[in-house]
Structure formats: C-alpha cells, structure tokens
Design goal:
The complex is a heterodimer of chains A (198) and B (331). The longest helix of chain A has 15 residues. Chain A has one domain: Alpha-Beta Plaits (2-Layer Sandwich), CATH 3.30.70. Chain A contains seven helices and six strands; from the N terminus they run βαββαββαααβαα. Chain A is an alpha+beta fold. Chain B has a two-stranded antiparallel sheet. A two-stranded antiparallel sheet of chain B has the order 3-4. Chain B starts with a helix and ends in an 11-residue tail after the last helix. The radius of gyration of chain B is 33 Å and the shape is elongated. The chains are: A alpha+beta (198), B mainly alpha (331). The structure holds protoporphyrin IX containing FE and iron/sulfur cluster (SF4) (2 copies). The site of one iron/sulfur cluster (SF4) has 14 residues of chain A, from helix 3.
Amino acid sequence: MARMKFLCDADRCIECNACVTACKNEHEVPWGINRRRVVTINDGKPGERSVSMACMHCTDAPCAAVCPVNCFYTTADGVVLHSKDLCIGCGYCFYACPFGAPQYPKVGNFGSRGKMDKCTYCAGGPETDGSKEEYEKYGANRLAEGKLPLCAEMCSTKSLLAGDGEIIAQIYKERVMKRGYGSGAWGWKTAYRETIES
Amino acid sequence: MASFGRFIRLGVGAWALLLLVIVAPASSGAQQVNPTASSVKEQQLLQELNRIQGRVSIPDQRSGVLEQPQGREWREFRNVTLRWIGGVAIVGMLAVLVIFYLTRGMVRLESGRSGRTIVRFNMFERFVHWMSATCFIILAISGLNITFGRPLLLPLIGFEAFSEWSQWAKYAHNYLSFPFTIGVVLIFLVWLGNNIPSKLDVEWIKRGGGLIGHDHPPARRFNAGQKGIYWIVVIGGGLVAATGYVLMFPFYTTGIEGMQMAQIVHSIVAVLFVAAMLAHIYIGTIGMEGAFEAMGSGEVDVNWAREHHSLWLDEETSRTGQPRRAASAAE
Ligand code: HEM
Ligand code: SF4
Ligand code: SF4
C-alpha cells in the first residue's frame, strides 16, 4: 500500500499561490479558511525561500493523539482524516499540530469554534466516497477517483509533490543530484521522523 | 567648464561599466556553484527558535508560522503527564478518604446535641456557596471528561454517544464558567475577613485540628483547615478562571505557546482543585457530625459550635446575646 506524503521543494517554489487557489476552489473551502498556504521565510533577504504547507498527514499524528473525542483516523494510504460529526471544536489538535494545519470556521467565537477543518489530501471524509454529504463537509475526494491532490497537480514549477512517499523522495533525490543542491524536504523530520538524504 | 564636466561624467560612467563587466559574471558564477549557500535551512532555523516563521499573503497572519514541533511536548503532557497527575491526585485522595473514614470514622459531637442552634451562614452566604459548588461539580465532571473521557468513557458508550455528550459537556463547561467565576469573587469578598491566617492556626495545626485524635483546639469562625480550603478556592479558582478564559477565547491574548501553557496550568490546577474539594466535601458530609447543617439550614447546634469553633461562639453570644432556640430542633 502506498504511504501518501507531501514534499515541497523549496528551491523551486516561486510563491505563486496556485496550490492555495486550487485547493480553495476544488473543495469550495469557506472564506477565512486556508487548508494550504505558502510561507516565505527571510522575505526579500538573501537566502529567501518559500514553502507551501498544509497538513502533512503525519506518522503517529499528534492531532489524533490529543483529540479528546478520538475523531481522527488514518486511511490505508496513510492519510490522516477526521470526522466532523464527532469533532467538538475544542481546538486541541491545533495546539498539538506542528504545521498549523487545523482550521476553525469561528476562531475565538466563545463556546463554539465550529467543526475543525483541515487538508484531506483530497481524500474526503468518513462518508461514502464521492457522495454529496462528503463533498459538503470535506470537499472533493480525488483520491477515490485515482487522482492525486490538486494542489500538487497544479503546481506550476512542480515544486510541490504529492504521492507515495518513496516515489516522491526518489524524484526529489534525483533533482538534487542533477542540480547539485537542495534545501531539504521541509517538515519531513517533524512529520515523518525521517529526512531525505541527498 | 561644461566640457570638463562632461569629461568627468564620461570617465565615471566608463569606470562603472568596467566594474560591472568584471564583477557581474564573477558573482553569477558563484551562484551557479551553490545558490543555496545562503539559503535558510530548516534544521538550523528550528534549532535557533524552535519554530519557523515567515510571511504569508493571506489575511490569516497566524498561519505565517510554518513549523513548531513543540506541540510534541505538549502532547506528551496532555496524554501522559496530566493523566498521571490527575489520576494520582484524585484516586489517591479518594483512597486516603476511604482509609480515613474506615479508621477514624465520623468525627462525633462529643457532648451530644444541645437542641439550641446558632446561625452560622446567612441566606446570601449559602447562596454563594451552593452556586459555586454546583458550577464546580459540573465544571469538574465536564473538564475531567476532556482529560479522561477518551480512555475511560468512550470505549463504553461508543463514538457517537461520547461525542454528543462531550459537546454538551463542553457547552456546560464554557457557560457555567461565568457563574463560577462570580461565585469565586463573592467567596473571596464575603469571607476574606475571617480567613486571615493567625497564631491560632499554628496551634490548631499542631494539635491535629481535632481530626487526628480527639482534641478540640480553639478556633474562631474558620479554623486553619477551613482557611486552607478558602485560599485553595480563591487562588485555585482565580487560576482556573484566568487560564480558562484564555482557552475559551483562543489567540486573543497569546500565541500557540501561550495556549499550550494555559492548558497546562488550567488542567494541573483543576485536577488538584478537584482532589482538594473531595476532602472538603468529605468533611462537610460524612466526615463530621453536625457540619452539613451549617451550609444546609445555615444553623448549627451550639454544642457543635463549642467543640469546633469555641472562640467564634463566644464572640457571637457576646454580640447577639443568647443563642436562639430553634423550634424544630428543640425536642
Ligand atoms: C472558571 C472558569 C473556567 C473556564 C473559563 C474554563 C474553561 C475551560 C476550557 C475552555 C477548556 C478547554 C476545553 C473546552 O473547550 O471545553 C477547559 C478544560 C478543562 N477544564 Fe476548565 N474552565 C473553568 C473552570 C474549571 C474548573 C473549576 C475545573 C475543575 C474543577 C476545570 C477543569 C477543567 C479540566 C479538567 C479541563 C480539561 C483539561 C484537559 O484535559 O486538557 N475548569 N476549561
Ligand atoms: S500536519 Fe497537523 S493536522 Fe496534519 S496530521 Fe500532522 S498533526 Fe495532524
Ligand atoms: S477540535 Fe475537533 S478534531 Fe480537533 S481535537 Fe478537538 S474535537 Fe478533535
């Protein structure tokens, strides 16, 4: 079985935000919520790098560990999903997540933060694959159709890679070998406790 | 003069051009060798600040934090450390109370009942006490559900029922925090005068407070043990309220570390608070004969007052004359 991962090649990302826009449109993500974002480090200074970040679908996911109602589950593809029917909007997964992935429709609205929303790796939720309910709550289920996440598919420089961890790691390694440099697989050590040696 | 100026400008221009021609290929050549030489490195950034932050072009500026692995330590606290602290404090306290009850039993009224009573807590004091107490019990149950519900209750009742219950428990926890906070403030104000520590308290503690042994050390309105409970309520209540409101209004006042700290302080103080209140409830009910009436009807038997709060009884009788005879308790 594949173990799905994301990899952002920061030496290629040009901060065009196509991935962000693709995600928002594909899943009709409500106003104010961003399942994916591009962060630019050292903006305008030498050594500036941009990294596109969303839920990394961690190994032994911290969000799942701290959730008081245990509403997360990991699919056979290694994708970390959750049930909005079970979520009580406590905010704990946000405190545990290393990547700021969980989002709330009503952040700070006391007593109720609404149901947590996050990147699904374009794999929907617990509802029947491709159903209307699934789309309304979680967005499109591309994985069930045999397609990869749209953000990576849309990436204009192929900086953002999605797919089986071993395959995208291989692609990245080859790139690094060819061009002779690479700033590493951002977030991998934190999310998967492994890096790509190059 | 004009031609001299032009000559100078031309000369400077030529020099600048020459410099550009020499330097530019050199620097672009260096970049081709290693363009990442000056680039930011993930591990280095993490080591420096334990987080990586940058700029985002979307309105949510908090999302500029790219990575912050310290959630891992917080996870360890919430899932392991807190459950140990809470488990040991609460189960430990229950065990101590059971053993104490089995060995010492109820602290009896040694001189029996006199049939005459004296007012100990007026209507307003009792209202404040019971409002706070009711809120506290619901806050404690709904809070402990967040801490222990997943391993203890969820397997018994299943996902749907547990989520439904937790959602209501969360609403209860959030809304009842307001009357509870008001209660703590009123408790602080109403009984502050009676709870200033004094020399009497030292003696009371030395003599075992009458709980250990059968001594009856003198006490005014509140003895050292009750003062302890008072300060636990005021300080503990203040801390859970302050941190609780931070948790309730996330990110208004602080960032992610602040939220984690708020949860740590809130939950540790809360579980210790629950343990302390178990002891308080024990003494107020089955632990001591005649004690519950003080907060129940508001009146205590004069003999109870003499045994447990001798100095207070003296003060009250000299202030209001003879303790009055309660109609119902007379015969
Ligand atoms: C006074 C005002 C209080 C406020 C504003 C407050 C607020 C909160 C909030 C917002 C949470 C996070 C979970 C959620 O969203 O429901 C929480 C958790 C919790 N509260 Fe409170 N609370 C208060 C008082 C108390 C009291 C008096 C107790 C104990 C008797 C208590 C015990 C707990 C516990 C045990 C947790 C779960 C901690 C964990 O496992 O993470 N709280 N509280
Ligand atoms: S990135 Fe955050 S939300 Fe996604 S699996 Fe990891 S901890 Fe959970
Ligand atoms: S916000 Fe929802 S998903 Fe996140 S920890 Fe709380 S209940 Fe679980």
